[in-house]
Design a protein that fits this description.
Radius of gyration: 25 Å
Helix content: 40-55%
CATH topology of the largest domain: Transferase(Phosphotransferase), domain 1
Number of domains: 2
Number of strands: 8
Distance between the termini: 76 Å
Structural class: mainly alpha
Shape: elongated
Largest sheet: 3 strands, antiparallel
Strand content: 5-15%
């Protein structure tokens, strides 16, 4: 079993607190902190007990984690049932994606690994009401019952090629895809009801004799699934201990594992036969890049603050003739800078940092999101400042 003894935090904005609390009551995961003043919610996740769905899909696609076709079908069915349950309670999620879906690993479950494992989990959604700030059409909303159909298609297209079947025959594999997976994709594309898709999946699970028997070591599989490779005593099983040692070293080296580990794994675990354990040097290099990126972000925010401050001051000076010292301007700029750095927008972009590490468009979206809140922050600060100046003038005249 792989060990992930660390925690991570995801931060999202919200608009309606009453609706948010209702969603949390039915869909809670991790430790939750609601900031009413800034309209943000922070989820603190124990990564030894929970897993972001986008991470799981990424690991499967990278050939790092093994799952059976039977487990994939169950995951799809569980996702559909989760959306059904929430909507039956009057809860809507208009900004759902792979990054906002989490698996809470149950006590009797194993953890996704290089070999097949029993997986028992509950599904949870986060990021209710929070736009996709990383996208140009950030405000685009779509009901979860429709979005989940898009997500299912992504999961199938990313995962099926890495799923091992009992038959190694390419033609047989294609036939299985056409019989089981393609109809699910077609049902999703036509926006068929969740009940229709679930019924189709249940039919195939029954036809191919889905087995889930931990006592007899039948790992949640169909009769067409691989049942001989990548179990205990296999070649992949033999390297788990070494991978866990490297995990521990990386955590000790960089502390905040969540923003670094996937990049490192991705390069080294695609082909486990050729692994060279260079995690420390890779982690150090990535950590340096991370620090460089954060310095660039701070420089850009400071630049945006100065430009916006100058423009706003010119507008205020048309109405008020107070003398403003350079020191006063710098103090206001520093307060605004500190406020932006700690804002929900900057924190939001660290949620899935690894996905967009060197993406220029992503960086531009950070600046765009920050700029929207920056103008409001400057207006608030200047309003308070000039109010203080007026009161000070009145006090001097009395």
């Amino acid at each position: 079993m792989l060990n992930f003894p660390y925690a991570c935090e995801d931060v999202y904005s919200f608009e309606n607190q009453e609706e948010l609390i209702k969603a949390i009551d039915f869909d809670q995961i991790g430790q939750i902190y609601v900031d009413q003043d800034n309209k943000s919610i922070t989820y603190k996740m124990d990564r030894s007990k929970s897993l972001r769905l986008s991470d799981l899909i990424f690991w499967i696609e990278s050939d790092f984690v093994r799952i059976h076709l039977g487990q994939l079908l169950h995951l799809i069915s569980n996702l559909l049932q989760k959306v059904q349950f929430l909507e039956s309670k009057g809860i809507e999620h208009n900004y759902l994606d792979l990054n906002r879906i989490w698996l809470q690993i149950k006590q009797n479950s194993q953890y996704p690994c290089l070999i097949y494992q029993f997986l028992y989990y509950s599904l949870h959604f986060i990021g209710y009401q929070c736009p996709f700030y990383e996208k140009q059409n950030s405000q685009y909303m779509l009901k979860a019952s429709l979005r989940i159909n898009e997500i299912i298609q992504i999961i199938i297209n990313k995962c099926f090629n890495q799923i091992r079947l009992k038959s190694k025959n390419t033609q047989k594999r294609n036939e299985i895809f056409k019989e089981i997976l393609q109809p699910i994709i077609d049902l999703c594309k036509s926006n068929s009801t969740s009940n229709q898709i679930i019924a189709f999946i249940q039919e195939k699970l029954k036809k191919y004799n889905y087995q889930d028997d931990m006592k007899n070591k039948l790992v949640q599989s169909l009769i067409i699934d691989d049942n001989s490779n990548d179990y205990i005593q296999s070649q992949r099983h033999s390297i788990i201990e070494n991978v866990n040692k490297d995990l521990k070293q990386i955590i000790e080296l960089v502390g905040n594992m969540d923003r670094l580990q996937l990049n490192i794994y991705y390069k080294h675990l695609k082909s486990y036969q050729k692994i060279k354990f260079e995690y420390q040097s890779q982690a150090q290099e990535l950590y340096r890049l991370l620090q460089k990126r954060e310095l660039q972000l701070k420089y850009k925010i400071n630049e945006l603050v100065q430009i916006s401050m100058k423009s706003s001051l010119q507008e205020y000076e048309k109405q008020f003739k107070f003398e403003i010292t350079e020191n006063e301007i710098q103090l206001i700029e520093q307060e605004i800078f500190d406020q932006i750095i700690k804002s929900k927008y900057v924190k939001y972009f660290n949620n899935t940092f690894w996905l967009y590490f060197n993406n220029e468009e992503f960086k531009n979206q950070i600046y765009a999101a920050i700029s929207k809140s920056l103008i409001a922050s400057i207006q608030d600060k200047l309003k308070i400042f000039f109010m203080y100046k007026i009161l000070q003038l009145i006090d001097d005249l009395i």
